[in-house]
């Protein structure tokens, strides 16, 4: 049987390296400290089972791996997400989009001619940005830039005009016109 002095010596020798070993595998500091205490408790109560003192390091690290595994096994498994999620009704989304359509047309018309053309050709006519670049005789990155800037300007115009509510998947649930722009954009 090992003496208390030997167990204390093991604690001093292995405390810091074992703590680093556990922290590399467990993000929560408090949990890591609890795991380390459990490791030393197991070392203390099972030291007699060690048959070969030359394999002390391997034995201690195996105990540590086992305690870490036990920690993760004991953690609750999150409940699976339901198949159907209560999101915005597609019919309601279509209705909201229909109400906003005239305002969006006005916003598209307010774009500079280059951005308006890029937006209409890609978003309305459905051509790719590569095709847009070929049609306008500009680089693909130039075409992408025009489309992105047109989208950003329309998005900003919409956000300046209305407050939008979205579901967790990004579907439009509702919108509320801001008082100062309702007459201007017609989104009431």
Q: How would you characterize the overall build of this protein?
A:
The protein is mainly α. The protein folds into two domains: 4-74, Rna Polymerase Sigma Factor, Chain: A, CATH 1.10.1740.10; 90-185, Orthogonal Bundle (Arc Repressor Mutant, subunit A), CATH 1.10.10. It is 65% helix and 6% strand. Strands 1-2 form a two-stranded antiparallel sheet. Strand 1 and strand 2 form a beta hairpin. Helix 2 (29-46) packs across helix 3 and helix 5 (113-124) packs across helix 7. The chain is elongated, with a radius of gyration of 32 Å. The termini are far apart.
Q: Layout of helices and strands, plus pairs?
A:
Layout lengths: L3 H20 L5 H18 L9 H19 L15 H20 L3 H12 L4 H8 L3 H22 E5 L5 E6 L4 H4 L3
Antiparallel strand pairs: 1-2
Helix pairs in contact: 1-2, 2-3, 5-7, 6-7
């Amino acid at each position: 049987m090992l003496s208390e002095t030997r167990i204390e010596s093991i604690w001093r020798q292995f405390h810091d390296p074992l703590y680093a070993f556990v922290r590399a595998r467990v993000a929560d500091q408090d949990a890591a400290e609890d795991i380390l205490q459990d490791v030393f408790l197991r070392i203390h109560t099972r030291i007699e089972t060690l048959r070969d003192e030359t394999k002390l390091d391997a034995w201690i690290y195996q105990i540590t791996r086992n305690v870490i595994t036990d920690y993760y096994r004991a953690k609750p498994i999150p409940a699976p997400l339901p198949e159907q999620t209560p999101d915005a009704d597609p019919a309601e989304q279509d209705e909201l989009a229909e109400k906003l359509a005239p305002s969006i047309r006005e916003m598209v018309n307010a774009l500079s001619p280059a951005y308006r053309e890029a937006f209409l050709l890609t978003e309305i006519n459905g051509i790719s940005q590569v095709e847009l670049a070929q049609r306008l005789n500009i680089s693909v990155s130039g075409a992408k830039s025009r489309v992105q800037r047109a989208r950003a300007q329309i998005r900003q115009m919409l956000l300046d005009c209305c407050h939008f509510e979205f579901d967790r998947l990004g579907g439009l649930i509702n919108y509320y016109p801001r008082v100062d722009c309702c007459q201007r954009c017609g989104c009431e």
